[in-house]
Specification:
This protein is α/β, with parallel strands linked by helices. It is built from 11 helices and 14 strands. A 7-stranded mixed sheet has the order 1-2-3-4-5-6-7. Helix 5 links the parallel strand 4 and strand 5 (about 140). The chain starts with 6 loop residues before the first helix and ends with a strand. Bound molecules: zinc ion (ZN). Zinc ion binds near residues 149 and 247.
Length: about 325
């Protein structure tokens, strides 16, 4: 197993995957959406330029088809899943987070789901495996405040886990979850979890209201729709770039079928615009992408533009 992969190795893998798709070998070739060997790992180290990065698993969850693709007839979803050799009775959804050591700063993007499900809450044990101490993290970037992104913010005594961190979240996102109008647009349980987990961070939260370089080479970029203040994080070091796309889309099939959307998008029209903006950009740049919920862990790959939508090319070997 390689600890670090480089872009050239990755592109070799991508070409293999692309050509197998072109020749119709998807079913008999690599089942690249559902590689159980990869899924078992909880940490994955790689490098973007000078930045040392570690993908960290918090576990995952089996979503039902109708929630993941809420505007598509179930028969149609099953047909496409079958075509990809994927299970047709549920959508296995990894929860993947990112640690970055820039040399100057130690950064975490999103904080896991905590004990939201009995299949989540593994982020801290995987950080320990990767020898990352929570109190060594100085910066936490929050893509949005859904339970699986902020549920691990507090310890069992409701105190912040990342005791030495400054937190960054989009201003519109913070304002939304603490507003009364949230009750018209989001489940009450989501609002309760957001307020419980974000409230204790209040004194150390920095609200971002425009595309900003948070740290040298690390930017937050607005991508609203999934939630009102949803943001994407980009990393740039040397001649490499990576985009951590949060929940801009939840599944690779949301790229192949750009009109498919999940029940969780609060403002679907804006989510559709953000999807085009972000995925056209990452395809043009040939950037690395972490699709936070893309199977399999480490949810790392790249995206190419197609006649309709985009195609996800995950790394197939770690
Ligand atoms: Zn999510």
């Amino acid at each position: 197993m390689k600890d670090f992969i480089n872009r050239r190795d990755f592109l070799k893998v991508s070409v293999l995957v692309s050509s197998s798709l072109c020749t119709g070998l998807t079913l008999s070739g690599i089942d690249f959406y559902y590689n159980k060997t990869i899924e078992k790992k909880g940490t994955y180290k790689f490098r973007i330029g000078d930045f040392e990065c570690v993908c960290l698993s918090d576990g995952g969850y089996n979503y039902n088809l109708e929630d993941m693709f809420s505007n598509v007839p179930t028969d149609c979803i099953k047909e496409v899943l079958l075509k990809h050799g994927m299970p047709t009775d549920y959508i296995w959804t990894p929860y993947t987070y990112l640690f970055i050591n820039t040399g100057e700063n130690r950064v975490l993007i999103d904080m896991g789901a905590g004990q939201l499900y009995d299949t989540t809450g593994k982020l801290l044990s995987n950080m320990k495996l990767a020898e990352i101490a929570p109190d060594s993290i100085d910066t936490v970037l929050i893509t949005h405040a859904h339970p699986d992104h902020i549920g691990g913010a507090l310890d069992e005594n409701d105190k912040p886990v990342y005791t030495n961190a400054q937190y960054f979240i989009w201003k519109e996102e913070w304002d939304f979850w603490f507003s009364e109008s949230a009750f018209e647009k989001a489940p009450e349980e989501f609002i309760r979890i957001a307020r419980k987990n974000l409230g204790p961070l209040k004194d150390r939260v920095n609200l971002v209201d425009r595309e900003s370089e948070i740290l040298p080479g690390i930017n937050m970029i607005p991508a609203p729709g999934h939630t009102p203040g949803h943001a994407v994080v980009s990393l740039s070091s040397g001649d490499e770039q990576l985009f951590y796309i949060g929940d801009t889309v939840l599944h690779p099939l949301h790229l192949e079928h750009p009109d498919w959307s999940p029940v969780y998008d609060i403002i679907p029209e804006k989510a559709a615009i953000s999807k085009c903006k972000i995925f056209d950009l990452v395809a043009d740049l040939e950037a690395w992408v972490i699709g936070q919920h893309f199977p399999p862990f480490p949810s790392l790959g790249h995206v190419t533009k197609q006649d309709v939508g985009w195609k996800w090319h995950p790394i197939t070997e770690i």
